[in-house]
Design goal:
Layout: E1 3-12, E2 15-25, E3 28-33, H1 40-47, E4 55-60, E5 63-64, H2 65-68, H3 70-73, E6 76-79, H4 91-101, H5 106-119, H6 135-147, E7 153-157, H7 165-178, E8 183-188, E9 200-205, E10 208-213, H8 215-220, E11 226-231, H9 236-242, E12 244-251, E13 254-260, E14 270-271, H10 276-284
Parallel strand pairs: 3-8, 3-9, 6-7, 7-8
Antiparallel strand pairs: 1-2, 1-4, 4-5, 9-10, 11-13, 11-14, 12-13
Helix pairs in contact: 4-5
């Protein structure tokens, strides 16, 4: 299976939101990383077929998605940033409703709902009204609805918003388990969401795909440019002028500073291995 984005451009009035996006994807997890407002959601809406690009095409195995119509949409699972729910529906009723929209039979829906309720850890909460759900529970329900039709292309826009740390780990494990047989596009500005599971990381800024590669490829680009130093607080401003500060930790004797810099930032700095967070800050330090 191959999903290709060919010369995708999207304008909103006179403003260009996406500028000539070209991308080829096969089964696996693709982490779409970038600050808020860089066009990630617009791109995902185009792939999910809920928004038409100004120019360009989306191809699945060589076929234009517009020509495929329902055949393409049947292969999509989509979790938007804001998922509308009927507050007076129970979670179970909501999933039955979505399953009907996706064309599942009642038996198919029933079987999938039971499995997915367990998968997203909502088995004991399925008869509770959606309006009574917490933000994290609504997000887990949203993940379940995206998986109802067992999609071959799963599109997740900020899927871990509202999840507590244990739920985030459970989510990452789930995505990793199911990604061998499907394309998963996961948009986030939280580096840890993709750090351990992404086949490829896509760095997106100002409507453009800035860089694409494996985590190893991206971190290797900063080899020899990431440092840590134990310094007095008065030197922090100097370090910030000469590099990109990734992290500052307060200690009893001063600050431990992690910084990306092409040159030695302070005399006692030691070189350390780059991380994906270092890469993110290197590209997006100006937002």
């Amino acid at each position: 299976m191959e999903l290709k984005l060919c010369n995708i451009v999207h304008d909103f009035g006179k403003k260009r939101i996406l500028n000539t996006i070209n991308l080829s994807m096969s089964p696996g997890v693709y982490g779409l990383l970038g600050p808020n407002g860089t066009g990630k959601t617009t791109l995902m809406r185009i792939v999910a077929d809920v928004l038409y690009p100004t120019r360009g095409n989306v191809l699945l195995d060589g076929q234009n998605k517009d020509d495929m119509g329902d055949q393409y949409r049947a292969q999509i699972g989509y979790l938007p940033q804001e998922l509308g729910m009927y507050n007076h529906f129970s979670a179970r009723d909501f999933l039955y409703y979505v399953a009907a929209l996706k064309g599942l039979t009642k038996k198919e829906a029933s079987d999938r709902i039971e499995v997915l309720a367990q998968t997203v850890n909502l088995s004991g909460e399925m008869d509770k009204k959606c309006g009574k759900y917490s933000g994290g529970m609504k997000r887990r329900l949203g993940i379940a609805q995206a998986l109802l039709n067992n999609p071959s292309i799963l599109i997740l826009d900020e899927p871990t918003v509202g999840l507590d740390p244990s739920e985030r780990v459970r989510f990452r494990n789930l995505i990793s388990e199911i990604s061998n047989e499907r394309i998963v596009i996961l948009s986030t500005h939280i580096v840890s969401d993709v750090d351990h599971i992404a086949k490829q990381v896509l760095l997106m800024g100002r409507g453009e795909l800035l860089r694409q590669g494996t985590i190893k490829e991206l971190t290797n680009e900063l080899q020899g440019e990431v440092w840590e130093a134990h310094v007095p607080g008065r030197l922090l401003a100097q370090i910030e002028e000469n590099g990109t500060v990734v992290n500052v930790q307060q200690t009893d004797t001063g600050l431990v500073v992690r910084v990306v810099s092409k040159t030695l930032p302070v005399e006692n700095a030691r070189m350390v291995n780059p991380s994906l967070e270092d890469v993110y800050m290197h590209y997006f330090r100006r937002g």
